Amino acid sequence: MTTNSERRILVTGGGGFIGSHLCQRLIDSGHSVLCVDNFVSSVPSNIAALLDHPQFELIQQDVALPLDVQVHQIYNLACPASPIQYQRDAVQTIRTNVAGAMNVLELAKATGARVLQASTSEIYGDPAVHPQPESYWGHVNPIGVRACYDEGKRCAEALFFAYHHQFSIDIKVVRIFNTYGPRTQLNDGRVISNFIVQALRGEDITIYGDGSQTRSFCYVDDMVSGLIAMMNSEPGFTGPVNLGNPEELSILELAQVLRKQTDSHSQLVFKALPQDDPRQRMPEIELARQRLGWYPTTPLVVGLERTIDYFRRELAAASKETTSTTITA
Ligand code: UDP
User: Fold this and answer.
1) What percent of the chain has pLDDT over 90?
2) 234-240: which pairs have CB atoms within 8 A and are 24 or more residues apart?
3) Does 303 score more than 80 pLDDT?
4) Which of 87, 119, 191, 216 to mutate to test the pocket of ligand 1 (most atoms within 8 A of CB)?
5) Mind telling me the catalytic residues?
6) Quick one: pLDDT at residue 32?
């Protein structure tokens, strides 16, 4: 029998970047974790340390396929989140977001589990209001290249609130802003991993547009704390709640910071700005502060240092692998 504080928790996308950190934290807190992932944009090595743990279970499957499991809580994180990755198979991205949300909501309906949706700052699109409060409805191109993700996530939010109002499902919705840290894939394509890998390899650092667009970056440990705080917040508090770091910087500033922190001599080169790339993004996090007592505590330089260390190790491991393959061949 489990006590109230030890729960069986389902994490969809639990093998991914944020998901694997969340699984680890939940296991460390004494819970049982059921991880569902099809590893479309992640690798099983993210959860290698958990695979032998008696309270950890992995089901390798698509979140859009039915799940017949008994759980107390569900974190729905499954979906590629990097623009180049989610645009590769736009139809599948919409399916993952919409059918996946429907699937976890049906499971919540059948089991009485509380269910948290990992929504996104992308639902604000290219925002006309800055910083973005939860009350802002957004400015999204519904037929653009990012629509599969943005509209998929918007539809998922609509589904969560429809299930809440129609069937009294216990929902929690968070909107995750740009997050970074160890376990992002080398080829993920998002800005922090790209810049670090380019800087460490001495390659050109690719700035899209003139680099004046802004983002605000939250370290993954802070994000995991926010997700857990929201999941365990008072009954009836549904959100949506923004989770992110309210410190804004331009992409050009980020490139300069990273070049300095990696002691790199890489050149900064300017490439075309992708279609519908938001010009500015920064969360308003008063709601999270007031209702969850949550705010990020990891300074950017500290989080970047840990992330740089991670990529140094990944690059060393990748080059060792290449060397041994060459020798074997
Ligand atoms: N970006 C860049 N160079 C890269 C990758 C991304 O300048 O190699 C820019 C991108 O155009 C965007 C910002 O960095 O303005 C953040 O991009 P990312 O893909 O990390 O996530 P987004 O916030 O756009 O979802």
Assistant:
1) 94
2) 234/291, 235/170, 237/172, 237/291, 238/160, 238/161, 238/164, 238/171, 238/172, 238/173, 239/134, 239/172, 239/173, 239/174, 239/175, 239/287, 240/119, 240/134, 240/157, 240/173, 240/174, 240/175
3) yes
4) 191
5) 149
6) 97
Report the separation in Å between the CA atom of 187 and the middle of ligand 1, taken as the mean of its atom positions. Answer: 13
Domain ranges of the chain: 4-177+219-244+277-296
The CATH label, of 3.40.50.720, 3.90.1150.10, 3.30.1360.70, 3.30.465.10, for the domain at 4-177+219-244+277-296 is 3.40.50.720
15, 39 in Cβ contact below 8 A?
yes
The H or E element spanning position 58 is strand 56-59
Average pLDDT of the residues in 139-155: 98
Rg of the chain, C-alpha, whole Å: 19
Distance in Å, CA 191 to ligand 1 centroid: 5
How many whole angstroms separate alpha carbon 115 and alpha carbon 120? Answer: 16
Question: From ligand 1's centre to the CA of 184, what distance in Å?
Answer: 14
- The model's confidence at residue 319, banded by pLDDT at 50, 70 and 90, is confident
Q: Is the confidence at residue 2, as pLDDT, over 60?
A: no
